[in-house]
Every structure is written in C-alpha cells, then in structure tokens.
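Forum > Structural Biology > Help requests

Title: Can anyone predict the 3D structure of X8 domain-containing protein?

Hi all, first post here. I have the sequence for X8 domain-containing protein but no way to get a structure on my laptop. I'd be grateful if someone could post the structure tokens.
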Amino acid sequence: MANGQKTWCIANPLSHDSALAANIEYACSLLDCRWIQPDGPCFEPDTLLQHASYVMNMYYQAYGRHLSDCDFKNTGLVSLTDPSYGNCTFESGGALAEEEPSETWCVAKPGTSDELLQQDIDFACNHVDCSPTHVGGACFYPTNLINHASYAMNLCYQTTDRKNSSCDFRGTGLLVSVDPSYGNCSY
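Reply #1:
Sure, ran it for you. Structure tokens for X8 domain-containing protein below:
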C-alpha cells in the first residue's frame, strides 16, 4: 500500500461461524472488546461477522497492520475502504509499509442491514450471473445475505474494469486486497 494508505481488517463473509467465534475469543483475550458488548456502539447488528470484523480490526491495528496481522487462519481480509457505519468507528493508523495491491475485490460491508444487502443482490444479479449463489452452486454456502451479496457485488465490480466507484453500492461495498475465495467458491 502506498505510504499513508489507511487499511482495515474485516472478516471474510465466507467465514464459518465457528471461525468467527474463535477470532472474537482470541482478539478479546488480548484487547478490550467493550465496543461489541450490548451497550457498545458496535454491538448492532448483533452478528458474529460484524463483531469479528470489529475485533479483528482492533487486533490488526494494535499489532502493526501487516497482512499477517489480518490473516486469522485465512478468515481476514484487508480492506482499502473504511468499514465504519453509524456510531461504530473502525480505527486505522494508515502507513502500511507494504506494496500497493495488484488485485482488488469487492465485498459487502459488515454491519450492512439485510434490507440493503438484498437490494445489492437484486441490483447486481440484474447485471451479472448469480447462479453460483443458488442451491447447488459453488458459492451457496454459507447461506447468508452477506455472502451472496459479496459474491454478486464482486462480480459486478470485476466486470466493470474494477473501478472504485463500481464497489460503492450506496456505501455498502468495501474494496479488499485479499482474495475472498473459499473452497470451490471463486471470486
């Protein structure tokens, strides 16, 4: 990344709940996780993906902002777009000393409402083939809106010459520098 480029760590929308729970437990054993507690500004939406993304970013920021600090056994993605929403602020220190990413992907922002994720799916699937997210498709699992929206949003992004504006989706998309593909689900 260019000197001064701010980056964040988020959980891959394809991550299994057990991995997300383990990431939360690990990061919270080392850091103060009160922001994802019921009275904290990052508690809602109360999902493992959102909570894991927040604490994984805390860890990533605290331990040096290197790609390895966001790996979490291949469940982390380095975001080039701020995943903050509402009163939930994802901190970033910037100045990552690594090179500019050669490839980027688009995924849905953790914390996006189901209603907006469905709108993203509807929009994207009117422009690209979303059959891999249907029953029997390589990207059907995990069967949740954020996974399916991420796949569809990325396919739109990739087919529009990877323009930053093609990953905006009314503020619900994030550019990431790590391939979110998992198993047979290829982004």
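Residues 8-176 form one domain. The beta strands are 8-11, 76-79, 105-108, 173-176.
Shout if anything looks off.
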